[in-house]
Amino acid sequence: MNNAKYIRRGVIKQVLPLFLVALSVLMSSCKIVASYDVSDKKSEKSTASYSVKDVNIPKAPTSKEEKESLYMPQALLDELPDDDFGEMYFTVITLAGKNLVFPEEASYIAPALYERNKKVEEKYNIKLYEKAIGENEIIEYLSSGELSGSYYADLIDLPYEYMPLLYEKGLIQDFSTKPFFVENRPYFDFEISDMLNSGYDGLYALYSDALYSPDDMYCLLYNKEAQGAKALEESGFSAPLAQSCGLVCDKDLPLELAPLCTGNDISMFENGEALMCIDRICVIQELSGKMSLGVMALPLDEGKNAYMPESQLQVFFYPSRASSDKCTCLVASALGAAGYDLNVKSAKEYYMAYVQDNSSALMLDKIFARYKTRDLPIVN
Questions:
Q1: CA-to-CA distance for 75 and 206, rounded, in angstroms?
Q2: Which residues in the chain belong to E strands, given as ranges?
Q3: Among candidates 44, 23, 47, 45, which has minimal Cα distance to 34?
Q4: Can you name the residues that pair with 159 across neighbouring β-strands?
Q5: Residue 131 and residue 243: Cα distance in Å, rounded?
Q6: For 302-345, what is each residue's pLDDT tens digit?
Q7: Domain 71-213+310-340 superfamily per CATH
Q8: Which of 68, 221, 245, 270 has the fewest Cβ atoms nearer than 10 Å?
């Protein structure tokens, strides 16, 4: 990847040696040591000899049918070279309770992601292993791993909001400098990744299909039996309608619609005190049994239907001390390839069971279609 695409906007202060010594002492006293004895891992027995140029990338599709054929998860996975890492434990650092590499067992998306992970494990003869760290300990844990001077993780899956601190502390590496990193594949959204890395001198935050979270997309919900519902369905959203009939918004809503909100308490919407609510798609399940619920795409300019805060996007980070550059690059690619559009497909099938009318079903389909085509603006 051409690093000229990334423009450095400021100079990040270097960590002083004295600070490192103090921090090392602090880590030892807290007994949070993020290092592994590499002998505990199965030895890496890579049997393949190749470079990234050997990846079998087909020519760009020329028709919708050809695209659907080439961009199927199995076809994308088959593009990547096979390899054998000797039952190596591939450690992914995650935030406890919030990641899409190892979903909670009760999650509707868990069965599909389990199958995705199984395909990746079989392709590279590895065992995916999750090291879940609490929100208050994650930076300390990674810092102690770096100071230990030994391997502590193969991949990191965290919300983007951790990026500045991880970069400043030297805890992450540039994906684009790795010889086995595959560029320009559909499961890596480089348009969003470019934006997330703006101001940095490389590709440190990688946005992947493996980490898309449809549950966090925003939509417009309304009570079909409330005053103003007919006007909304016939004429669409308007500021006067929101002000006269009530618009409840998620308190974290990062949109230009926020000034039109008349409250942030969703109980106002549940109790019939407001006609509309802007919230994440995941609340559809909860609200569908409480009212006659209608679903609409967000009423924004340029047909944008799906928004989520930049800070909440989950991304892959390349740890400062991974055990194998080859394995990290191939597995990061394989998770995206085997999971191409999988999260969106699973979410669509799940939430369609909770919509109550054909119009809402069409709207939900429209929202997911917009997300699938990556027409997804990110808001600071």
A1: 22
A2: 88-95, 126-133, 155-159, 172-173, 218-223, 247-249, 276-280, 293-296, 308-309, 314-319, 378-379
A3: 23
A4: 314
A5: 47
A6: 444 445 666 678 899 999 988 899 999 999 999 999 998 888 88
A7: Periplasmic binding protein-like II (3.40.190.10)
A8: 68
